[in-house]
């Protein structure tokens, strides 16, 4: 099983920290955010990893290289100066990811979620990990009922940025910039998205304040 780490975000809310450093390389607990994910994936048996990048992406390649030092085999999907959004970024990387289901992880989260428990072959087009709604996103994203994720319903939970996708989710798409959410909602309408709820440690590192929270959490781990 392969994985993709989404690392192409500009990190506008993190400025000035991200003016000269790409957000995925910001340090937490003495390591770049990206490195935590690579190590966790390798520990779960996922060694083949694709990382997309845009803003200051050369720094990411210089920092992680081919991944051998971390026990991984890393390939890159550069997006130039204009990031392709989540959907477009994954679509561009599909030739590197192959024909089988693959894991996707947002680079800008910290979590102790055990990647080994993700399904290698979800029954539908996608499998999402949902978490309790954080204070900055109280409305949540999706409804979960009996292992199936729905676009509507209550209570709603937040998408963690961790999932498994089949390449078929992107069938009919064209190269370019587009979001992932509409594809997921379409698949939900067909009953093709499974999910799980995770109540363990998870934090969206979207602001300098939350970066400090992540630092405290990892420092006490």
Describe this structure in words.
With 221 residues, this protein is of the alpha/beta class. The protein has one domain: Spore Coat Polysaccharide Biosynthesis Protein SpsA, Chain A, CATH 3.90.550. Helix content is 24%, strand content 27%. The chain has helices at 33-43, 57-64, 85-97, 181-189, 208-219, and strands spanning 2-6, 27-28, 31-32, 48-53, 73-78, 102-106, 109-111, 126-131, 142-145, 148-150, 156-165, 193-197, 202-204. Strands 1, 4, 5, 6, 8, 9, 10, 11 and 12 form a nine-stranded mixed sheet that branches. Strands 2-3 form a two-stranded antiparallel sheet. Strands 7-13 form a two-stranded antiparallel sheet. The chain starts with a strand and ends with a helix. The model has no long low-confidence stretch (mean pLDDT 93).
The percent range for helix content is 10-25%
Unreliable residue runs: none
Mind telling me which CATH architecture this is? Answer: Alpha-Beta Complex
Number of domains: 1
Query: CATH class, please?
Result: Alpha Beta
Number of strands: 13
What's the mean pLDDT score? 93
Task: Return the CATH topology.
Answer: Spore Coat Polysaccharide Biosynthesis Protein SpsA, Chain A
Q: Judging from the principal axes of the Cα atoms, what is the shape?
A: globular
Tally of contiguous helical segments? 5
Rg estimate, integer Å: 16 Å
């Amino acid at each position: 099983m392969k994985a993709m780490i989404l690392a192409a975000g500009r990190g506008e809310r993190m400025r000035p920290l991200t003016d000269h450093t790409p957000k995925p390389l910001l340090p937490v607990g003495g390591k770049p955010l990206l490195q935590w994910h690579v190590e966790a994936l390798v520990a779960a048996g996922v060694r083949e990893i694709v990382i997309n990048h845009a803003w200051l992406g050369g720094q990411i390649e210089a920092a992680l290289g081919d991944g051998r030092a971390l026990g991984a085999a890393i390939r890159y999907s550069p997006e130039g100066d204009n990031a392709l959004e989540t959907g477009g970024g994954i679509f561009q990387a599909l030739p590197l990811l192959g024909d089988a289901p693959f894991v996707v992880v947002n680079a800008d989260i910290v979590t102790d979620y055990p990647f080994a428990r993700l399904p290698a072959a979800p029954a539908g087009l996608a499998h999402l990990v949902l978490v309790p709604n954080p204070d900055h996103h109280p409305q949540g994203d999706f409804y979960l009922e009996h292992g199936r994720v729905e676009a509507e319903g209550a209570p709603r939970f937040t998408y963690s940025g961790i999932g498994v996708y089949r390449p078929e989710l992107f069938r009919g798409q064209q190269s370019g910039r587009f979001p992932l959410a509409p594809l997921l909602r379409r698949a939900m309408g067909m009953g093709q998205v499974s999910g799980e709820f995770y109540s363990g440690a998870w934090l969206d590192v979207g602001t300098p304040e939350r970066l400090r929270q992540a630092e405290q959490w990892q420092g006490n781990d």
